[in-house]
Write a structure and sequence with these properties.
With about 160 residues, the protein is of the alpha+beta class. Helix content is about 20%, strand content about 50%.
Length: about 160
Amino acid sequence: VMLTCRIGFEWLTVSIRRIREGGSLRVSSTVFGLMLLCGSIFAADFAGVWTGRITIRVPREMPRDVTLTLKADGSNITGTLSGESDGQRDRTDILDGRVNADELSFAIATGASDMPRMNFQGKQDGNDLKLTITGKNPSDGQEWKLGDGLLRRAK
């Protein structure tokens, strides 16, 4: 597979040179498929345990130390988000977990009627995972930015 990726990237480099020199480029579906395969092989690895802090800013600022435990199966992610609030430790399963290259998305059920889900969008940068948290009001469909977070891969 590594050889295939190397050939795909070398083809891309030669093709870019050819275009710069005024030549034409024909992309075969096989080479394009190999390039997509290489991209998925080098996608970020989100599986494992991440710890850090998320801060919900609506309706008031509420920082919370959390642990995100993830399992990957291709582009699907499953796992749990746990933390402590008001002396109570809780844990919830993540919903609709997806990976695309170095980006991650998932949701959690909140149990609140005015915002039944929180949606998390994350981008991996080395051992850091930067999160943006949003929610959608079901009565009017308005999406709100609720907060953000920074998690670090646990050793």
